[in-house]
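Pilot study result, target chain (163 residues):
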Amino acid sequence: MHTKNLQSPLKRNLDNQNHHGTQTMITTFSFQETELEEFLDKILLPPTDPNAEVQEIPPYKIVYVNGACPRNYRVYKGDSMIGVIFQHITHWCNEVDSLRYAKALDAAVELDEFLKVARISTTATEQPVTEEELLDKEFDALTFDDWERLKRYVPETRDLVAA
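Predicted structure:
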């Protein structure tokens, strides 16, 4: 019985010295992948990097990320990134509301104010863990303060009925 040497079309093309199309495509893809990595590195530059495009608008620093219209900027206050603002041809906007601002500073301030209010409302609505909830936790998950609270805890006994 005669067996034929079966080979995939891709393998045949790569082995064929007269066929250059597939090999060129692989080289181009590798080049594009390298460009993408360099592009991503540039996007993620911190405001302290000498290659970063930074505008200082005290107390904020805005760092260009990418885009043409809108241009996207990360907003930093101190060492922390607080969010993103966008520069359009006629106005600025931020990621938390649909308002238009004349200046980058206005968009950054409103972004910062929104985050302050969000933090306050989140903190105000969070209830501390009760002792009953602490009793449901695993022992290893309890902190020193949790143990101290449980030592002082006396369960209510008004619902208990004597037998």
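One observation from the pilot: Confidence is low (pLDDT under 50) at residues 21-29. A full batch analysis is planned for the follow-on phase.
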